[in-house]
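hiii so um. not sure if this is the right channel but i have a protein structure encoded as tokens and i wanna go backwards to a sequence. like what aa goes where. can anyone help
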């Protein structure tokens, strides 16, 4: 081949494709058998190659789990990967796994799988069932996913399902304070459990606000905002909230304040709702809250930078427990622009993960002892790596993401799909695969390695279940 011909070939479409394949094969061989390459000579190129390969590997593992669901749990809520069975949340399935997985398929451009999930959802999902559902879970997984599916796919039937679901959930807000009950019956609207918490009261704004914007009906946003406002008004003199509040009396029943389960995504939604809707009332709530959290909860401990637990009224320390759920906070800090605290906290989250090469549910950071040793395929630590890498482009986060991913495959994969771990110490697997594994965990892994422009943070915001929702420009 003449030089001129070669040049022509190399820049032709086919040539580029073949060359790309060749480079990928060489890189794969290098990754498998090790290469004595000098990273400093071409760090950017190597990073780009690693990323492309890793994104493909994540996709392949996502497909492995989806195939397991299809084979053994099709039409049900969740796969049981060890017994090769399924589990439904209620007496009738709400298709939690395909519903939650759909936006990940769209982002990964898995068109065939997205079509399979879509057909199943549109053919069999119905909310006309006499059963009590938990407002928080159904909101973040079902409503969030349906709205996101509508925006990603454009099929009006997704929106119809979302509107039907929201109208059935609306009675949940009929308390004296406007804060919702935890459970509502989809057929009768009957509510139960007035003892609620900030996460379940405050994690509604993104979905209900989106629904108001799309339908032009303000009722959804009004209800969700009134609930958050009522909760914010119950904050202590130190601007902190507690763990449990009665939505009928407005009285706190548990005054422990932290960023963990039952409070966590309340803070996430204050920030994200401000960014999504440009509502200044919400911005004030976020500004006030984050200031208080950083003042009273942030802890420069011997083992690193953490967020402790305190009493909301006295700010006395109640415990130094920190867990897998708390690991969402570096992502929120990064999104808010506080990259310094985000990076410091992520360093601690990495330490927590690496104690046993996979993340325990809870540790005591004053002793670095594990206090709850299970791992249920949670995404938060991975989500935070994604946000930090997105905003800093520091390759150490790429390395972190890669290490987490290798650990996940090593310990949680089986021949059917992925499984929870009973204990991160023994690595014994457990017969469950949460739907958020496909909605969040695999999506965030993929996004760490996929090209940055796969998600435009000026256009979309992820709800707390990682379903992308469109940002509505401030008028
Ligand atoms: C998910 O359902 C959501 O991320 C929620 O905000 C917290 N818990 C799980 C994942 O751990």
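sure thing!! here u go:
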């Amino acid at each position: 081949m003449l030089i001129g011909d070669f040049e022509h070939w190399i820049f032709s479409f086919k040539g580029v494709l073949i060359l790309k394949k060749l480079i990928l094969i060489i890189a794969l061989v290098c990754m498998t058998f090790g290469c004595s390459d000098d990273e400093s000579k071409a760090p950017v190129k190597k990073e780009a190659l690693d990323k492309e390969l890793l994104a493909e590997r994540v996709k392949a593992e996502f497909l492995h789990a989806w195939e397991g669901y299809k084979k053994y749990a099709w039409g049900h809520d969740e796969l049981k990967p060890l017994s090769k069975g399924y589990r439904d949340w209620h007496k009738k399935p709400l298709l939690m796994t395909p519903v939650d997985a759909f936006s990940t398929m769209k982002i990964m451009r898995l068109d065939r799988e997205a079509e399979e999930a879509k057909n199943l959802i549109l053919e069999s999902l119905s909310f006309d069932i006499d059963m009590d559902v938990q407002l928080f879970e159904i909101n973040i997984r079902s409503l969030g996913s349906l709205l996101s599916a509508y925006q990603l796919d454009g099929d009006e039937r997704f929106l119809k399902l979302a509107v039907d679901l929201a109208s059935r959930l609306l009675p949940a807000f009929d308390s004296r304070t406007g804060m919702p009950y935890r459970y509502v019956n989809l057929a009768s609207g009957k509510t139960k459990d007035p003892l609620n918490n900030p996460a379940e009261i405050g994690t509604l704004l993104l979905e209900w606000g989106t629904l108001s914007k799309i339908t032009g009906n303000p009722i959804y946003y009004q209800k969700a905002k009134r609930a958050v406002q009522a909760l914010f008004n119950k904050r202590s003199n130190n601007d902190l909230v507690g763990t449990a509040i009665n939505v009928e009396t407005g009285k706190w029943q548990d005054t422990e304040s932290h960023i963990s389960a039952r409070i966590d995504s309340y803070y996430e939604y204050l920030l994200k709702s401000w960014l999504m809707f440009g509502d200044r009332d919400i911005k004030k709530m976020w500004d006030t809250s984050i200031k208080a959290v950083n003042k009273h909860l942030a802890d420069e401990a011997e083992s690193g930078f953490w967020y402790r637990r305190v009493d909301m009224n006295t700010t006395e320390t109640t415990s130094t427990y920190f867990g897998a759920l708390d690991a969402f906070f570096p992502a929120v800090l990064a999104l808010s622009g506080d990259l310094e605290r985000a990076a410091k906290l992520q360093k601690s989250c990495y330490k927590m993960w690496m104690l046993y090469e996979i993340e325990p549910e809870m540790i005591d950071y004053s002793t670095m002892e594990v206090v709850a040793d299970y791992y249920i395929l949670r995404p938060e630590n991975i989500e935070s790596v994604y946000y930090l890498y997105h905003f800093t482009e520091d390759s150490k986060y790429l390395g972190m993401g890669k290490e987490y991913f290798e650990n996940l495959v090593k310990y949680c994969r089986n021949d059917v799909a992925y499984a929870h771990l009973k204990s991160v110490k023994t690595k014994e697997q457990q017969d469950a695969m949460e739907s958020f594994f496909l909605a969040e965990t695999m999506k965030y892994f993929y996004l760490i390695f996929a090209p940055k422009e796969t998600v435009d943070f000026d256009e979309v915001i992820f709800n707390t279940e990682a379903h992308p929702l469109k940002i509505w420009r401030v008028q």
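oh and The first helix runs from residue 3 to 11.
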